[in-house]
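ok posting inputs for the zinc ion job
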Amino acid sequence: MEIELAISKDPVQIETDAVIVDIFEDSIDFTDTTMAADIALSNAISTLINDGEIKGKRDEVTVIHTLGKLPARRIVVVGLGKQKDISAEIVRRAAGNAFRKLRGLGVKSVHTTLLAVGDLGIEESAQAIVEGGLLGLYKFTRHFSKDTQNTLKKMTFTVTPPESPGKISDQGNNDYENLISKSISRGQIIADATSIARDMVNEPSNFMTPTHLADAAVQIASDHNLEVTILDKPDMENMGMGGILGVAAGSAEPPKMIIISYQGDPDNPDNNLGLLGKGITFDTGGISIKGAAGMGAMKGDMAGAAAVISAIKAIAQLRPNINVTAIAAATENMPGGSAQKPGDVLQTMGGKTVEVENTDAEGRLVLADALGYARQMGLNKIIDVATLTGAIEVALGDICTGAFTNNQLLLASVRQAGESTGEKIWELPMFDEYKQQNKSQVADVKNTGGRKAGSITAAQFLAEFSEDTPWVHLDIAGTSTCDRDQGYLVRGATGVPVRTLISLAQQLADKNSDA
Ligand code: BES
Ligand code: MN
Ligand code: ZN
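and the output
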């Protein structure tokens, strides 16, 4: 996609396939651009409003052909809901809907006029349109034998010159173009990283093995000058990583522990953040095998790994002042002649022993070793991201990610990052009483806690391995995929929580520089 910035006094007079203008539900005052379009179209927009066909509601997209009255072939009126409720998230959603609709109509190039309303500045708005537009246009097409080219090829941001700059930062007019360009490229970097995560999750397991995942990570590291280490099976054996080795035992594909580091503050090694991801490239359940119905969805059981690898790529491009390490624990979970069996006991990296009551509770086993490795590395703030439990989908649906923590301060940062990106996060309790359910008769802990509060007992299991390091666990089993197109989400992988992780790194870095 080609993205361009154009300065024009009269954006509706541009020759293009479509010009996007916006409208609010509760405000009769049009923006200047919407007003200009309405006048040029002999009041077509006001007429549609009077007839009740345009209401200005969120997610509303109305395409009006200009029939020669304007150089643009179409004016596209996008509803933004109530003016007082405007946010970056609403703009992202609107952009996703509008661009996807226009692609469906065969439109090849789109001009969009920026808005700056209320608390939403023009920079934030520009970034939101790029993110929402690009993510809304996302498609996973690489396995179709026929060419499925994206027909919508050009997005132009048309802004009125600085005489009426709307609400921008304090900088002078000279920096106006510069500021918007920066927002656009920021949006592009973030949308690209999210799309890469979506690709990895949508990719079938025969194309996304632990080895493929490691290769992708090595490529990203070399593109962005990051340190990368891939631990192979013998390394894991030397380090006593019995958790991931136990899960990998039934598979013909070798497991990989993938470690990528970005040094954004090399003089202060303690200014660091660890992003850990569950990377089960296919989860059959192992000997505690799953049913056939819907098992194919388990190709996406590496969404946590995809998220942390993609996030560190964007972080490397945006260069916040903090050291970030991504660790992805990658293996298949297969039943096989050498597979681990219910009742087996494993010893994890830090020495703790685990009774494997159910081989389908494998995510927490690989994460136990990832947590051990992260702590040994000296990472002092850890976020783990995992499609860990079906129970979280029962509790929260596909609307929000479940969060668990041993440190409210770190969770507050994660929640703030989630709010700014529109990726919803909700905390679940970690009362000590739940630990009881993970007690084993033969080992330090067992990997299942029974039917009750399945997502919480899974988190309590992980808490045994994060120990006293500030840690947040994000269970994305419900949010890593979605079943219909909506706003900037497209059926299939969502890329959650890549944007939150990027925003978190930035936020922690900014806090650190303030101090
Ligand atoms: N990968 C699954 C969880 C999952 C379920 C992710 C649905 C995405 C959609 C995980 O490894 C698993 O199988 N969890 C078990 C745990 C149980 C055996 C304690 C579950 O949720 O049933
Ligand atoms: Mn499982
Ligand atoms: Zn799993």
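notes: The chain is about 35% helix and 20% strand. The radius of gyration is 24 Å.
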